[in-house]
Amino acid sequence: MISARLAARPLSEATVKMHLNRAMAKLGLSSRTQVVAAARESGLLKPGS
Q: What does the pLDDT look like over 15-46, one tens digit per residue?
């Protein structure tokens, strides 16, 4: 299964930050708080989870 193989690969903190920053730039967001708010508004994240 592809997702299991990807989950088993360790990612550096720098790699995660780079991808997060690129996604935030594409979405026009400037903070992780805005990312959470946008995820809730879109239904990707349910309150309390």
A: 989 999 999 999 999 999 999 999 999 999 88
**What is the Cα 33 distance to its own chain's centre?**
11
Tokens representing 26 are: 């594409």
Kindly give, in sequence order, each residue whose CB lies less than 8 Å from that of residue 29, ignoring residues fewer than 6 positions away.
35, 38
Answer whether 0.70 is exceeded by the pTM.
no
Find, among 19, 13, 32, the residue nearest to 40 by Cα.
32
Which contiguous run of DSSP H or E holds residue 28?
Answer: none
Contact 40, 47 (CB under 8 A): yes
